[in-house]
Amino acid sequence: MRSASSCVSDRSLQYHPSPTAFLNSRLRRGYSTAQSAPSSTSFPDPDRPDLFYHLFEPPTPLSSSVPVFALSFIAQRPSSANSSAVIGWLPASAPGDADDAGLNDFVENETFRHVLHEAIRSALRDNADDIQMNAALQTQQGWMHIHGMIAMPYGRNVPALGRIGDPDDIIASVRVEEGKILSDTYQPMPSYRLCTADGVLQLTDGLAQRLREILAARGAEAR
Q: Whole-model pTM above 0.90?
């Protein structure tokens, strides 16, 4: 991770206004173009309106000296940088920095991962996602992998029906019998990554809605 303690002392620095675009399509380390600063310390991503960035000054779970962007699916600023609503953290980079942040600098929030699996398991139990239910009907019998959805223009690697995807892109597995999901058999995939070179986690609609509901409820409790 780059050292950027100078970012803290100069409040006039313009932080990168689109860290997720940087994470996704510009991960090649060639990014150097300065862009205008966002008007707020919390703002949505221009390419992923469901994804938000909240700027936190140090100390944070990522650094004692460098400001960070906390990625979240919740528009309202989390009560703290280590909130369970935070997907992970990315060092806030200023235009002109010699060593901009990249994918290797993104750090996942393990607490969010626990909430993610709680949300998916409960949504599957309640048959809250039509896409997953249809996939179970097609599977009929056996284990079914839970993937996200293709996020345009940055798509995760969702495999064709009946094919096994990359372990980095399999969120969990669940047993299906007679076309019905047995939510009690839900097993998280330890190798799943919340952010890869193909994009940040994007769930199917029903799962995403349940996750937002749980995150919003946890946020309200924390305030």
A: no
